[in-house]
Amino acid sequence: MSVQAPDQAVALATPVQKVDPAEKLRRWLMAPSFIPLLLWMIVPLAMTIYFSFMRYNLLNPANTGFAWFDNYAFLAGDASFVPAIINTVIFIGAILIITVVAGILLAVLYDQEFFGKNVAMLLVIAPFFVMPTVSALIWKNMIMHPVYGLVSLGLQRLGLAPIDWFADYPLLSVIIIVAWEWTPFSFLILVTALKSLDQEQKEAAAIDGAGPFKQFWYIVLPHLEKAIGVVVMIETIFLLSIFAEIYTTTSGGPGNATTTLAWLVYALGLQQFDAGIAAAGGILAVILANIVAFFLVRMLAKNLSQSA
Amino acid sequence: MNSRLISKWLVTILGWVVGILFFYPIFWMAITAFKTEKGAYSPDLFFIPTLESFADVFARSNYFQFALNSILISFGSTILCFILAIPGAYRMAFYPTQKSQSTLLWMLSTKMMPAVGVLIPIYILWQRMGLLDSIPGLIIIFTLINLPIAVWMSYTYFCEVPKGILEAGRIDGADVWKELWYLLRPMTLPGLSSTGLILIIFAWNEAFWSINLSSAKAAPLTVFIASYSSPEGLFWAKLSAASFLAVAPIMVLGWLTQKQLVRGLTFGAVK
Amino acid sequence: MKRFVPPLLATILLSTVSALAQPKTVTIAVVNNPDMLELKKLSAKFEEKNPDIKLNWVIVEENILRQRVTTDVSQGSGQFDIVYVGLYDTPIFAKRGWLRPFENLPSDYDLDDVFKSIRDGLSYDGKLYALPFYGESSMLMYRKDLFDAKGLKMPDQPKYEDIAKFAEALTDKAKGQYGITLRGQPGWGENMAFLDTLLNTFGATWFDEKWHPTIDSPEWKKGIGYYIDLMKKAGPPGATSNGFNENLTLMTSGKAAMWIDATVAGGMLENPKQSEVAGKMGYAPSPIEATPNGSHWLWSWAMGIPVKAKEPEAAQKFAAWATSKDYIKLVADDLGWPQVPPGTRKSTYDNPEYQKAPFAAATLQAMQTADPTNPCIKKVPYTGVQFVGIPEFQSIGTVVGQNIAGALAGKMSIDQALKASQSAAERAIAQGGYQK
What are C178-210's pLDDT values in tens digits? Predict the structure, then answer.
């Protein structure tokens, strides 16, 4: 069965003045998730906004007072600010594309039955279980290291020169690592969504003469739209503040090749315990995130309206 | 038919090759855990295994204490997430209003603030409230950062439920509880299981908050791992052993949940 | 009712007694350094002698430790009773009044035995605020066997121009042999720690007396130019992700012929369980160029007690024990003299057993001549050899480190890197309110 909009959607069209008592009770259902998140958002947000206007360095408490927009100017005026934003956008875009495409392909592959499928699936999901710092260290030291990493050993056996991943292709290297970590997530959501796809639809299309590719394009893909939407939204939010992988491998460099907004906030603010700059950076990141989300929502708008 | 057999073989091979490729780095880390520090960087697949690194790890820190903390915090925050999220997700999926869509987006937006920006205010707040280095303190934080995911994913899976069945149930006289238990639960269990698994993993691997808000008593495995990467000194075999120990419980959980997922799915293919 | 009284009394009595007998818990935050891990192991002996004190260990990686410790100490949250602090943080913390000065040390402590340079580095306004657990400087470590094979001899005080020649002679990239390996990973405590010593000895400074950054000076250009040139000709690939650990691995697996880094590496290189080159190494002072000032760094991990610690007396007792001569002897009995915590006490280096370690002499010389109060050829308003003792340096150092790594990787020219670093430093120093 495909997703249907609840019948109540029709009710929205008619202007309802009176609220029936059952609806009033139902509103309270929102409270358990709504209220904590509201507090969580307001209190730290308020504190962060406050700090962003203050001169407050943990190590230099004598130097206090209102900084007004100084912190913002400091951050935004930094030579790496615009590159950081660009890097962040490229980073997120690349990872989204890679993980969604790979996730779809993998979901289709593992939707079929074959010998030992469950074990193979667990192998694919495994990277998601490993802590980001550990993943980054594995890739940096065991795989990508130009002197004693596995890739370079393989290249040497083939007679080729080793690749210095983190120096020559820093952003790509970090993207590879993070994509490896997050593809399992996308795969898990998509393969679960595929399970609810009616086999009969595909069989009917096959009888009508549609080959596997047409089946995929016209039946499977639309069915997955919603799940893809979920994956994109959740991944975007997480990817905006990815930090551990960069910290472990490139420390934002070389130059500012892997400096994302989160890294910049760390390097200029948190690392020297300047709560003011860190807070200003946090606010700027929220603004950027909202812009990105705005565009994403417009692209996915039709998916959401199907259900709302 | 011949082509069916060939394609079946192709799928099997492809499925396994992809799985092995994905798993290879982890496999490598796992076998390094059984090497000595000196041989940790060698590319040999065959070597004499030793438990020396594991012995070092157990001698250095109380692994079980960290593991217990991780379990308490991950499961605790996930359960709390579900308790708080499901009513809201239910409401928005089955009785949506004009505000539902924007509420969902707003909830997700609470995650947009990068942790590095908000660390110091939260640290100060936690300190004033006496929540530093406490299990409840970490459970609260993890619940808050995962709550939007819990709501969003539960909502998505609830939307998959065909409305017709619920209507039929209501007409048959089922009250809310019966509806939830007999109708909703079986249909959403696979989705909610994978949501639960994902929430547990997010909480399990969340390093930034756990390292900064805990020290000795409530420290989970992320802190345990952090003690093995050192800027000065060889640590690779030990880190592999420690990571092995840190990932093992969650891998086992994943394996168990996998079976539950598959079982639920064969029931859940809705006609 | 009467039946309940005796058990009730007993319970009250028992709980009171056990409450009184509660051991004092001392929570210690340390870096996951082999020396400190050994301390944790041997601290069981301390607990035996002091049954009323229980130790609670928090072990983390250096940068995380610094973050946790700074937040705890500056906020007075009392999470830790003993914190590991370094030469960089101690004066900053002490100035703000966040650490307890050490007074009334045990009579056999022998404070004069501790190296003066470290003692001064850990003091503020005449009072000592941390007891040094270990100290390190930097020195040149080289493969004596490879040198002998090529008929090369290391002078008693090498100069950087010598190093360049040696490195080129010992490099054979086709065979995976590199003449030298140096730190390249960006970070104020990573690549900048080493580069600062190189720059100092080339005559460069971070700031002039008026706190104007001097990064776009000819000395910086010369020093960085030398570094990049050397790494290109004789260094291994992947240098921009090589920190101490990666370089240690390159040395212990025999791939590099020279390495300039922390003196503590000596113990690791000579440990046959970890290193393939044990017994083949030679040790020399860190090279100089235009001036000997600041050619090798000074660092110490020391135990400090935050003002808001919950058990300060018990903490002081443990800190004094852990940094005493007796403790050093304990380690020697357990692991052998080459593995004792280095760089704190002169008595360690007077010990003939310790002198047998090949790196002891070079380390001693380095420790005694490192002078953070006089790091540069010119007069400067700051102290610190491989860092500038101001809070803003962590950020400035990292940004500059990133830029230099960028130049090393060929992503930008040296001039661009220096220019970007200069403006970053100017902004940061203005933000910090240093230029009056």
Answer: 999 999 988 888 899 999 999 999 999 999 888
Q: Name the phi and psi angles at B89, rounded to 5.
A: -65, -40
Q: Number of C-alpha atoms within 13 angstroms, CB side, residue B154?
A: 26
Assign residue A286 the CATH number of its domain: 1.10.3720.10
Q: Report CA-CA distances (Å) from A84 to A149, A257, A266, B9, C74.
A: 29, 8, 12, 47, 30
Chain B contact set for A1 (CB, 8 A): 162, 270-271
- Secondary structure in 3-state letters for A160-195: CCCCCHHHHCHHHHHHHHHHHHHHHHHHHHHHHHHH
Q: What is the pLDDT of residues B152-191, one digit of tens each?
A: 888 877 877 777 777 777 777 666 666 667 777 777 777 7
Please indicate if any CB of chain C lies within 8 Å of the CB of A256. yes
Please check whether residue A59 is in contact with residue C70, taking contact to mean a CB–CB distance below 8 angstroms: yes
What's residue B175's pLDDT? 67
Fold observed for domain C24-129+298-355: D-Maltodextrin-Binding Protein; domain 2 (3.40.190)
Cβ-based neighbours of C57, under 8 Å, separated by 6 or more: B61, B216, C27, C28, C30, C40
Under CATH, what is the fold of the domain B62-226? MetI-like fold (1.10.3720)
Q: Confirm if C29 and C58 have CB atoms less than 8 A apart.
A: yes
- Residue with structure tokens 């065979």? C175
Please count the structural domains in chain A: 1
The CATH code belonging to domain C137-297+373-431 is: 3.40.190.10
Q: Where are the alpha helices (DSSP H) in C270-324?
A: 312-322
Q: Which domain holds residue A45?
A: 8-307
Residue C224: CB partners within 8 Å, gap ≥ 6?
Answer: C195, C199, C404, C407, C414, C417, C418
- Summarize pLDDT for A214-264 with one digit per residue, the tens: 777 777 888 788 788 878 888 888 888 788 888 878 777 787 888 888 888
The sign one gets for the Cα dihedral B32, B37, B40, B46 is negative
Return the higher-pLDDT residue of A21 and C367.
C367
Q: What is the pTM of this model?
A: 0.80
Restricting to B residues 218-257, those with a Cβ less than 8 Å away from any Cβ of A are: 222, 225-226, 229, 236, 239, 243, 246-247, 250-251, 254-255
Nearest to A196 among B97, B229, B269 (CB): B269
Domain ranges of chain C: 24-129+298-355, 137-297+373-431
What residues pair up with C240 in beta bridges, in sequence order?
none
Q: Which residues of chain A neighbour B162 with C-beta distances below 8 Å?
A: 1, 4
Token pair recorded at residue A197: 């796809």
* Of the partner residues C238, C246, C255, the one whose CB lies closest to the CB of residue A167: C238
What ipTM was assigned to the predicted interfaces of this complex?
0.78
